[in-house]
């Protein structure tokens, strides 16, 4: 009987942990609807490096661009074929400042968005949760979405994401919202 109860408790704990992880993600459409309905009560942050935004696109639905990772142009990672990206040491403080500018505190809903959702969106949400922000979510599939699995456009980011879901975006940046150190 002890083994049965113990097994049940482990299964319950694992299912609870999975539910907690899943609770962090929102679809681009859910986010857009929330911004339209309750924009004054939430903080929507694009966590991409501003140069990336300049070349991929932007939505003015965000409140601020606060990069979670900044490109370090002095360190090229030859094995990965790209520059290093280091955690922005001011990320949490800049998010807290943006909350205060909106009259919100660390318990307000914060939604983060990166290019694909997994590399910086989810990690930035977890990073904020670890630092005392209590209500943080991220956009699953981010701004640009995922790559096609097959066909002529295999590998191209044409699946899901803010852009591919038909939500408002452009190549014109709002200088009032883009990060400048």
From TrEMBL:
In alphabetical order, the GO MF annotations are: transferase activity
What SUPFAM superfamilies has UniProt attached to this entry?
Answer: Rhodanese/Cell cycle control phosphatase
User: One matching Pfam family, short form?
Assistant: Rhodanese
> Where does the record locate the signal sequence feature?
1-20
| SMART domains found in the cross-reference section | RHOD
The answer to keyword Repeat applying to this record is no
Ranges where the Rhodanese domain occurs: 38-155
- What is the name attached to this protein's record? Sulfurtransferase
Provide the species name.
Marinobacter guineae
Q: What is the lineage of its organism?
A: Bacteria, Pseudomonadati, Pseudomonadota, Gammaproteobacteria, Pseudomonadales
């Amino acid at each position: 009987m002890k083994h049965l109860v113990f097994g049940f408790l482990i299964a319950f704990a694992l299912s609870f942990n999975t539910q907690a992880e899943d609770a962090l993600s929102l679809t681009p459409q859910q986010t857009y609807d929330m911004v339209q309905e309750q924009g004054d009560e939430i903080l929507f942050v694009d966590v991409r490096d501003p140069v990336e935004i300049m070349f991929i696109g932007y939505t003015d639905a965000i409140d601020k661009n606060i990069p979670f990772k900044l490109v370090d142009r002095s360190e090229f990672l030859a094995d990965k074929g790209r520059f290093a990206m280091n955690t922005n040491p001011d990320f949490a403080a800049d998010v807290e400042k943006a909350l205060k500018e909106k009259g919100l505190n660390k318990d307000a809903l914060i939604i983060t968005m990166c290019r694909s959702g997994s590399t910086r969106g989810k990690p930035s949400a977890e990073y904020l949760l670890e630092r005392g922000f209590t209500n943080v979510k991220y956009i699953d599939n981010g701004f640009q979405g995922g790559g096609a699995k097959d066909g002529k456009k295999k590998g191209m980011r044409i699946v899901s994401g803010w852009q591919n879901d038909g939500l408002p975006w452009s190549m014109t940046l709002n200088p009032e919202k883009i990060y400048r150190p």
